[in-house]
Amino acid sequence: MSGSLLRLYTIARVLLRYRLDELVEATRLFRPLRPLRGLIARSPAAVATMPRGQRLRLALEELGPIFVKFGQILSTRRDLLPPDVAAELALLQDRVAPFDGALAQAEVERALGKPVAQLYARFEREPLASASVAQVHAAELADGRQVVVKVLRPQVEQRIATDLALLRTLGGLAQRYMPDAERIQPLELVAEIERTLRDELDLQREGANASLLRRNFADSHDLQVPEVIWELSGDRVLTLERVYGIASDDIAALDAAGVDRRKLATKGVRLFYEQVFRDNFFHADAHAGNIWVDAQRRDDPRFIALDFGIMGSLPDADQWYLAANFDAMFRRDYRRIAVLHIEAGWMPAHIRVDDLEAAVRAVCEPYFTRPLSQISLGEVLVKLFKVAHRYELTIQPQLLLLQKTLLNIEGMGRLLDPTIDIWSVARPVLDEILREKYSLRAFSEELRRRLPEIVRQAPELPRLVHGYLERAARGEQALVMRSDDLHRLAETTARSQRRVVWAVLGAGLVVGGCLLLGLGAPGPHWGPVPWLTLGLAAAGAGAFALALRR
After folding, report:
1. 475 and 453 in a common domain
2. Which member of 285, 294, 318, 417 is catalytic?
3. pLDDT tens digits, one per residue of 199-240
């Protein structure tokens, strides 16, 4: 039996034991193993009474840590999975038996190059927590500070490489034989697991993530991020300030501590929007085990963030389009949502806007009949992505990661305060952030930051503009298109060329304004910006408006 068949046999055996026969029968993946089904022991009858999502979760947990990661990532694809299965997979926890504390101590000494007694005043061999990649130990520094030490498992890289080979084999077979493989893209899912694990295996990277998040909220009363002890950290060991708190889902403990849960829920929603739209750097593994509550601040509670291995950020364009989509949802502007999906490149340009608008309306309108306290932006986003798949949606993994995070945050908010009106909390926060982020002052600062680059490229602009206009005048600047309607083709081509000319002119005016701003143009100013710069920017905006005119 080949190595591939042996790997498949292991998976099939577990699936069948958990009565997941439909996965074996419905696909061609396990066709070579069907003659062997009689040799596989069946599970107790009690398993058959479990919901399918629970059976799948238990099967993945038995298959091991890598398959747990697979299930966690798959749970973000709520646009592809049935709701009951996605919800169950979201409960997967990365918990395994701890390894010997003496081995952990040896790993710390090997990574930091000194005996533990010289590094810490105290190092506890009994771990506080253990996962598939690393485990955490309590320790104390020479100055009395309490810390935790996160250390990678010995030889974890080799074990992960073996498990990933198994998963790649399965993904390759799924890509070849599974119906709808192009839509689900199993190899892309496997690649996402590899990227996630690669990040988690680099504790230096995790420390940098924690440090940046701490800096972003240095003056915040809403979020505490533990300090990284860099002199006792490396790529295999991470030492952090020890923090104490209550798990955010432990309602009984929070009530016993007298924490204002309503205020805490509001802060949780606000923190999400600040991380995503203000900082473009968000905690993407925000479940209760990683989000605690500072119980010492009853009247003004704050969250405590833990575990910074999985963080998310968005390209600037996607960040803006996502914010614009949220704003359009608040306004019930369904056509705007449809247009934004196409403009963002998430959907092909040939999709009819009116068709997509109708589909968006069908998704959103039922939600708006509910009380505002029952509306979930995360659920609306999931439904939109599901509908968009019918229209050839192409979306980045980071957006799916954000979708999962939004669902987690909203779920946490409603657990803390079942009456919370997430929309009324989110909208003013988003409006305030966007006003600040896209204000004239922010625009001016960004121009100043990029001025050296603009100055370097500016001498080339007249030559490029002249060359383009010269080619256009000679009829050499052609737009290649295909159409069955020649008249429509001619009109579209002419319109497109006019738009390009106006866009080039607008760019030239804006660049000229940037140069004047950076060089400190004389004459009257509006704050830090010369009136001449504003005039050129306005003219450039007008040119762009003409370029965008239908």
Report:
1. yes
2. 285
3. 888 999 999 999 999 999 998 989 999 999 999 999 999 999
